[in-house]
Amino acid sequence: MAEQPINPLEKIGADISELSSAVSSQLSIWKGNFLRNSSAAFDNMSPKQWIRLIIIVCTYLLIRPYLVKLGAKVQEKQMEKAAREMGITPGTKITANDLRQAKSQIDIPGVDSDSEDENDGKLSQWGRKQRIRQRKLVKRAMEIHEQNLAAKGNESDKDIDDLLED
């Protein structure tokens, strides 16, 4: 008689049920140990141990605000040091580019820059042609806008000249 092939879904189901029963039994053991040990720890304490525990808790409650203030001062000093290393003066508004350790000034899209050539990583090359096309488009749009402003400027000068008396 030939053996029946093993169904992988049944095998996975059996493994999952075995795992869940092992996890639940381990969790119940941990729960029992925690309850037994925590109640036994306080039941067997002498008055000397109670006084020690109360002193430790009260000392912590009294010292904690000072520790928090000290931590805040240390953290502030570290943040100021990091800001100085990034070239940011304290009190200035930090942009997302500053946080990424980029230049503090934003590059104008129409202006030629060598920043593309400085990055040697493969990641920076993604979309390079599209960025160049976009820069050319913006530069052309800025030129057209400047030409329109120059034309309008001449017309407004003519209007003002008509109003002026000789």
Helix content: over 70%
Distance between the termini: 122 Å
Shape: flat
Question: Average pLDDT across residues?
Answer: 81
The profile of the biggest β sheet is: none
Number of beta-strand segments: 0
**Beta fraction of the residues?**
under 5%
Report the C-alpha radius of gyration, rounded. 37 Å
Order of helices and strands: HHHHH
Number of helices: 5
What oligomeric state is this? single chain
In the predicted model, the low-confidence regions spanning at least 5 consecutive residues are none
Backbone structural class: mainly alpha
Pfam families: PGA2
Keywords: Membrane, Transmembrane, Transmembrane helix
Describe the model.
This protein is an all-alpha fold and 166 residues long. Among the domains are: 47-90; 124-166. Helix content is 72%, strand content 0%. It is built from five helices and no strands. The chain has helices spanning 8-43, 47-86, 96-99, 115-118, 128-163. The chain starts with 7 loop residues before the first helix and ends with a helix. The model has no long low-confidence stretch (mean pLDDT 81). Keywords: Membrane, Transmembrane, Transmembrane helix.
